[in-house]
Amino acid sequence: MPSSSSVGLLIEALPYIRKFQGKTFVIKYGGNAMVDPALKDGFARDIVLMKLVGMNPVVVHGGGPQIGRLLSRIGKESQFVQGMRVTDQETMDVVEMVLGGLVNKEIVHLINRHGGKAVGLSGKDGAMIKARKLALHAVPGEGLPSEIIDIGHVGEVTGINAELVSLLDGGDFIPVIAPIGIGDDGATYNINADLVAGSLAATLSAEKLLLLTNTAGVLGADGQLMARVDAAHVERLVAEGVIHGGMLPKVRCALDAVAAGVGSAHIVDGRVAHAVLLEVLTDDGVGTLIHA
Ligand SMILES: Nc1ncnc2c1ncn2[C@@H]1O[C@H](COP(=O)(O)OP(=O)(O)O)[C@@H](O)[C@H]1O
Ligand SMILES: CC(=O)N[C@@H](CCC(=O)OP(=O)(O)O)C(=O)O
Hints:
binds ligand 2
């Protein structure tokens, strides 16, 4: 017998389930949030439940730590500039193997084991993610000499062909996407998963963009969680160095997504059990809301 408190939770979820019928949610599952087997199971069940009650979850995954582990096994150090992995040709091969292979299939398998119908794709499938070489600009105070920094085969999204994603959504499938892009020149690009999630959310006019990571959300100068933050405040925190590293692409893509019409963007603590459902189906959101 469910207790009255679990019935209360279901009743709390009801208006959200009605409001979000048929709506698309882009959920970025960061490599740092894929730590504990119970949490991973919880994530998969959240996604399956969303689909069963009529929403369209689209998963974009990272896998930075998993890439780093394989690189170190072949004797290669990981190096990051502004949260982006410096990617030579050998690193690009490892990135494609780990993201398109291991991590993608692990998530697909998890979702399917919990009763979903997940299909794994990389940006090469259906020519989905078009990219060009990222022009990374030096941030003041970083001590780097040139205006534009060359970090190798790192890409930025130039276009998304979401036809395949829409087809899968319509057919009851759950797309699980690895952030690999293709250039006009045929080159393969390593793209930060946050940036792919943001662009995909904008292309699909998503209701929400959720970025699951390993912090409570965006922390301010005092180290406290910020419940909401806007564009001007983000730029101040970046200039002060309070937002740095892996949080930079997150806040930037979240701002771009809301500016492009995505309903809302949230940076969410993936270490909290069922963080996705807590954000989507309850009155108290978790993490930081990024608004224009
Ligand atoms: N202001 C900030 N608030 C929270 N985290 C921050 C902030 N600035 C930098 N970070 C860093 O960003 C990290 C999240 O980015 P990243 O490691 O790339 O995660 P993911 O693998 O989930 O994409 C945090 O663990 C933290 O170290
Ligand atoms: C260019 C770049 O940095 N690409 C990332 C792609 C994976 C990713 O984004 O993983 P997380 O979300 O787990 O950090 C990388 O090589 O690590």
